[in-house]
Amino acid sequence: MKNDIREILVSEEQIQGRVAELAQALVEEYDGRTPTVVCVLKGSVMFYTDLLRHMQIPLRLDFMSVSSYGAGTTGGAIHIRQELTTDISGKDVIIVEDIMDSGRTLNLLKPLLLKRGAKSVKIVTLLDKPSRRDPAVTLEPDYVGFVIEDEFVVGYGLDYAEQYRNLPYIGILKPEVYAKS
Ligand code: PRP
Prior knowledge:
alpha/beta; 6-stranded mixed β-sheet; 3-stranded antiparallel β-sheet
């Protein structure tokens, strides 16, 4: 698996340090409010569990799996692969994502959760690739771990063909790996 990685972009130590900082900022914002922290499966699972380990305040966990399709003038739509299991109406919601790329997923998910009655919705993403943003998306994440260039990244939850999610760091995949398919 490691042989398919061209270089480590964000090391395990860098990730863990930044995750602790993000958790501290969230604790300061949400202490006393019992937020519902939503893990957007599957990519954010590593980030989510590490983040929550550092958030020693009352909160609720929930999980959702979504994908977006369509774009441009149609505005796109969201497909819910796996639904939340708690009621978020009146709740302060924190969406935890692994990466914001075109931004279409979050641009659809945030309004959906607000429409369901969430009191507030904020977004924390480990990675942000602003160079890939759909021009139609104006939404900005509230908390960002690392802003990265447009590289094919895997690891720490991120996959290529469902592989590499279990690497403890963010690596850049060798082009020959994805050129094969
Ligand atoms: C990835 C990622 C985000 C989304 C970001 O999910 O986890 O949810 O794509 O892309 P966008 O900003 O262009 O919308 P994916 O659909 O690959 O599912 P996964 O998390 O299960 O890998």
